[in-house]
Amino acid sequence: MDASLARMLFAPRSVAIIGASDDPSKTTSRPLQYLRNNGFSGTIYPVNPRSRTVLGERAFASVEDVPEIPDHAFILLPAEAAIDAVIQCGRRGVKVATILASGFSEFGREGQDREARLREAARAHGVRLIGPSSLGIVNLHHSMVLTANAAFAESGLMRGGIFCASQSGSMIGALLSRGKERGIGFASLVSVGGELDLGIGDLCEAGLEDPHVTSFMLFLENLRNAPALRRFAAKAAAAGKPVTALKLGRSAAAAELAVSHTGALSGEDDVADAFLADCGIARVETLDGLIEAAPLLSRLPIRSAGAARPRVAVVTTTGGGAAMVVDQLGIRGIAVEPPDNPTLAAIRATGIDVAAARIVDLTLAGVRYEIMKGALEALLASSKYDLVIAVVGSSSRFQPELAVRPIIDVANKNTPLAAFMVPDAPQALKMLGEAGIPAFRSPEALGDVVASAFRRRPARGEVPATPANRPGGPVLDEMEGYGLLDLLGVSHARAITVGCGTQVVSDKGLSWPVAVKVLHAHIPHKSDVGGVVLDIRSDQEFAGAARRIVRSVGEKKPDLSVERLLVQEMTAGALGEMLVGYRVDPQAGGMVLLAAGGVMTEIYRDRSLRVAPIDRAAAYEMLDEVKIIEAFRGFRGRPAGDLEALADTLVAVSRMASSGMPVVEFEINPLLVLPTGQGVRAVDVLVRLAPGAEQERP
Questions:
Q1: Which end of the chain lies in a sparser environment, N or C, as judged by fewer CB atoms within 10 Å?
Q2: pLDDT tens track for 3-38
């Protein structure tokens, strides 16, 4: 992001408001009012060809009539007129314009044509755009409130260190007002709109050099222009400025892809989860969590790959309030652990005989300064914990100074400390906020933010470019798929192909028993059409199985001509089945998936997803996230599975993202897990290539 462009975006010296209204009740009058009310020191040029003045200030008939080239234009005109205004801005030399109007790609074919003309107008005339459908851009430290959002009519807008960017226009006002209620201030806020040109990643990157910005808050509806978002996130991590995101769409149905289960198991929201984690962004689930997350993220370091599960201590003056915290952390997989004996002794030395329990309950005695302070110091001094949480009861509302002073006085220790006030305690929360201590109003928000903070991973910068995932690419048959496995170094069961009329296979070098399958690129799920017969032990059984397969496929797929069968050795001694998949997401790029395998895989939905490629440490993290893996760790005396080989397979498959292979969908299902030292073995594989890759079949 060019420094001069960043300045024109967030700290312009002059602003043209094109379409400014003289009627104070209209939305298009707001930007001028807000700039004046907040003391904007730059020059403002209202542009309205039908009025000589706007709200008592001189107006200009056109941006071409203003006496200087404005740094930034806010275009408040309808869609068609906005396109003309962009052209006029370009001719005048304006470099940045924000467009309020909707009516573009979201309005069908007509809107898409209009959007194409807007894009071309901006490119041809050298204008960088925010929007369309943007409610504006705000920099409170420069008193630059260039927005039509009604929430900014409020007086006393709080300045702070948060840079807020939202793909939903109205949310910048909602977040501003909710933040003010909590005593949380903002540095800048921007409604990114349709992101026709400058996207959320570009605009956040522009805020990185602002010394007032200490953290970023993102309200996301999609991952449009994911590479720019990834680039910004990597730079934010390097600058030590944490990023929190609330992304909508958790309940959206997964879009199933054409070939494999992998698309259904790695729907849009799962991809977003993996992408944001790969960028080092903390994804929260609650609006309160989004607003309250920054202080904890600033204090809680990102954990390295392969780190032990996080451990949390909870100390309280109210058992019920603490139990809510334990519950919210527990459902998110965060363990609250009791103190060890030395820590317990240090707590008891303060004069209270606490029980050796998961919650350190000080009872009403904890209201005394020296008791709470001593207990906190003992827990913070222990090397056992990654985070200590203080839960304070009614005293936080009626005696806030007494309740939170020990928390404030011990907070600057190596172990991070957070607090939850059980009652509505605005004064206590304000005191904690001013001291920079993470403080939460609800156990749900606390659990949400703590889990999101611990889930963060070190931000990865650029990832390999992958082929575009578009419909129409060629699908490999299973035997061709095994050729790809050979290139990847992934073990698979021995197999041969034979014609449908073959009667004898005992002379083909395979060992009984075998599986017989229909072999056709357009029949990926063979069991759905009766195209698989297992445990064949003689030529006679093979001939009968072949006839049954041909008959069944002919009935269920009469439009397909079946000419070949695949005969495959069956694998003995497998402990269970897994699925390893790979797909190219249109925004996030290559993704690798591990899931419970077999025909019921979509029902179980027990899976883990990562941006590809991955290393061995990430592969082991994926193993830890899939519940069925516990069955391969010697569960109840069963033999342990070869998890090293499974991890190696994940790494090998993920490398397709950096190999240049034109693969856009790939799935091994099932991948048989054998006992330790015996490896894993693929017994079915589905592969789809990128369109136009017919000549690159393995």
A1: C
A2: 899 999 999 999 999 999 999 999 999 999 999 999
- Residue 696 confidence class, pLDDT cut points 50, 70, 90: low
Which amino acid would we find at residue 35? L
Mean pLDDT score of the chain, rounded to an integer?
Answer: 92
Q: Which of 150, 179, 202 is the last residue of a domain?
A: 150
Burial class of residue 402, CB neighbours in 10 A (0-12, 13-18, 19+): middle
User: Which are the contacts of 226, defined by CB distance < 8 A and separation ≥ 6?
Assistant: 201, 275, 587, 588, 589
Are 16 and 90 in contact by the 8 Å Cβ rule? The answer is no
In degrees rounded to 5, what are phi and psi of residue 592?
A: -110, 140
**Residue 274 is assigned to a structural domain of this protein:** no
Residue 242 CA, chain-centre distance (Å), reads: 14
In a shared domain, residues 108 and 52? yes
Does residue 177 lie within any of the structural domains? no
CB of 687 closer than 8 Å to CB of 475? yes
Phi then psi for residue 618, to 5 deg, are -65, -35
d(CA 28, CA 16): 13
Instruction: Give 209's DSSP letter.
Output: T
Length of the chain measured in residues = 698
Helices (H), 40-170: 79-92, 108-125
Helix (H) / strand (E) element for 247: namely strand 243-247
Angle in degrees, CA 254, 255, 261, rounded to 5: 85
| Residues 129/97, Cβ–Cβ less than 8 Å | yes
Q: How many CA atoms does the CB half-sphere of 101 hold within 13 Å?
A: 23
Tell me, what amino acid is at 635? Answer: F
- What letter does residue 632 receive in the DSSP assignment? G
- Could you give phi then psi for residue 449, rounded to 5 degrees? -70, -40
Q: In terms of residue numbers, what domain contains 692? A: 576-696
> Which residues 6+ apart lie within 8 Å of 98 measured at CB?
72, 73, 74, 75, 129, 130, 131, 134, 136, 137, 146
Clarify whether residues 689 and 549 are in a common domain: no
Strands 72-75, 576-585: pairing kind:
unpaired
User: d(Cα 534, Cα 378) in Å, to the nearest integer?
Assistant: 63
Q: Are 314 and 447 in contact (CB under 8 A)?
A: no
Nearest to residue 160, comparing CAs of 173, 176, 137, 145?
176
Please check whether residue 446 is in contact with residue 314, taking contact to mean a CB–CB distance below 8 angstroms: no
What is the spatial distance between Cα 332 and Cα 494, in angstroms, rounded to a whole number?
43
Instruction: Indicate left, alpha or beta for 697 from its phi (over 0: left) and psi (-120 to 50: alpha).
Output: beta
In a 13 Å sphere around the CA of 260, the CA atoms on its Cβ side amount to: 33
Q: What are the angstrom distances between the C-alpha of 665 and each of 231, 369, 624? A: 25, 61, 24
* C-beta of residue 687 within 8 angstroms of C-beta of residue 663: yes
Measured distance CA(440)–CA(417) in Å, rounded: 12
Q: Are residues 430 and 519 in the same domain?
A: no
Predicted pLDDT at 258: 41
The verdict on residue 200 lying in a domain is no
Dist. CA 346–CA 373, nearest whole Å: 12
Is residue 417 within 8 Å of 407, Cβ to Cβ? yes
Strand, helix or coil for residue 288: helix
**Rounded distance between C-alpha atoms, residue 629 and residue 594, angstroms:** 10
Q: What is the CATH number of the domain that holds 139?
A: 3.40.50.720
pLDDT, tens digit (0-9, with 9 covering 90-100), for 136-175: 999 999 999 999 999 999 888 999 999 999 998 889 999 9
CATH assignment of the domain containing 383? 3.40.50.261
Q: Which of 547, 569, 591 is the last residue of a domain?
A: 569
